[in-house]
Write a structure and sequence with these properties.
By secondary structure, the protein is mainly alpha-helical. It is built from 14 helices and no strands. It has helices at about 5-10, 15-35, 45-55, 60-80, 85-100, 105-120, 125-135, 140-145, 145-165, 175-180, 190-210, 220-235, 255-265, 285-290.
Length: about 290
């Protein structure tokens, strides 16, 4: 009744061009549906078709669905629908777009990020719905691949910069940094992952300040220097300028009493600075000059 029998047949067709035609027509019908029945009554079935399109193996259908989503969001806002009505319906779309961040095609990954940011900025969905899912642990299939980790870290960086943390954002300092640790962002074997983890941490530092440093005790000495320099540069651009950035804490060094005694036993004796001593290592001239002032 909503789309008509012919369009439904296109939607179910095995011919990808007909499936794409369905989404193109659905996009054109949004304004018409909004003026006639209102999008409230058709939102759920429309989103179900969009989820199927996002799962389609044909990339062109995926991109067409993204264009429908971007057209749908302002139409929903024009009808003044609330987040309580729209955000739960969009959860399936958000989860599918997050999975696409591990796709092999750059265009699919980049387009997914842009659509997720548009959803987060929409007044009818908001950042909370996106942030909560973005900070969750990644699926097991993606944890061992560097590309989806980099894409997720960059997405979180954009979300932190746009919507900050705390309050109703759905993100906290702990949730963001715990995600970085979960995906081994600081010590990952891939350099792009480590760079993305550092960029996200610096973006978070610009928002919360020194609170982020308590999560960095596992960094290697060279990494601590890099992070400290990045914090210092970021601190110059912050609106509230105060003391220099707090040094990144090094991991605690635990040493037993037995080890301390062993180190003392093997350490060379300290030279005796008294004149005439057998251990006196100073030159005769310096000794004589010293004796003149005794």
């Amino acid at each position: 009744n909503i789309f008509g029998e012919y369009r439904v047949r296109c939607y179910l067709s095995k011919v990808w061009s007909l499936r794409e035609a369905f989404y193109i027509k659905a996009k054109l019908m949004l304004s018409e549906l909004s003026q006639s029945t209102g999008l409230t009554t058709v939102l759920q079935p429309l989103v179900e078709t969009l989820k199927a399109g996002l799962d389609d193996k044909i990339a062109q259908i995926f991109f067409t669905c993204l264009s429908v989503i971007e057209e749908l969001l302002p139409e929903l806002a024009a009808e003044q629908m609330s987040k309580a009505q729209v955000a739960p319906v969009f959860e399936g779309i958000i989860s599918r777009l997050l999975l696409k961040l591990g796709d092999g095609q750059v265009r699919i990954r980049d387009s997914s990020v842009q659509t997720l940011l548009a959803i987060a900025a929409s007044p009818v969905v908001g950042s909370y719905a996106v942030n909560v899912q973005a900070a969750r642990a990644m699926p097991a299939k993606q944890k061992n691949a560097w590309r989806p980790i980099v894409s997720r870290l960059k997405l979180l960086q954009s979300l932190v910069e746009a919507h900050h943390v705390g309050g109703q954002s759905g993100l906290t300092t702990d949730s963001v940094m715990d995600f970085v640790k979960t995906c081994n962002g600081f010590a990952h074997s891939n350099g792009e992952v480590r760079d993305a983890a550092r960029d996200l941490t610096v973006a978070l530092y610009k928002v919360v300040g020194e609170d982020v440093t308590r999560h960095l005790s596992s960094l290697r000495p060279k990494q601590r220097e890099e992070y400290q320099d990045a914090f210092r540069t970021a601190g110059e651009g912050r609106s509230t300028r105060g003391a220099a950035p707090k040094a990144v804490a090094a991991p605690p060094q635990h040493q037993s009493k037995q080890q301390s005694r062993r180190n003392e036993a093997h350490s060379p004796p300290k030279p005796d600075s008294r004149p005439g001593s057998k251990r006196d290592t100073r030159s005769p001239d310096k000794v004589e000059n010293h004796d003149l002032f005794v």
